[in-house]
Amino acid sequence: MKSLDKVLIPLGMLLVAAVGLLFGQGILNGCGKDDDPVGTITFPRDGAHVNPTLMTEGMLANIPDEDRVWLAVRVGNRFYPKPPEINPNETHWSREFVEAGQLPEERFSLVLLRVSSEGQDQLEDWLASGASTGSFEGLPQISGSTELDSATGLVLGQPVE
To answer: Does the pTM of the predicted model rise above 0.70?
Structure first.
């Protein structure tokens, strides 16, 4: 019996540890912080000098079906959304757009936004209005939006050496 205990006790301890780890990672219980909507900008990084044709990359997870995801340039307290929107099911995304509205060496941020249907309507109206007038005035806010991540302190142009 003692030799069987030498096998069963460590095996039981290993099983308890494994189940605890799976619950801690949210694999068995399917709830908790691992289900929260997540979005990150992986490129560019904070403080980067970028070209006017700006390549961006990032990741998404757990975005609710009813929400949309957008990139926007933020200058001061104004947002300039950059179409097209990002598919919320796109776990690894990349987008390229031209940012021509900044002066060289003027700092701006790139913001990843989770947007509700109300915010989506606002963005569609803003895009339609800008297309008809040729002027895309910055938005002071985007209704029903949540900032998922940002890359701050971006500068157009090459670094000064």
So the answer is: yes
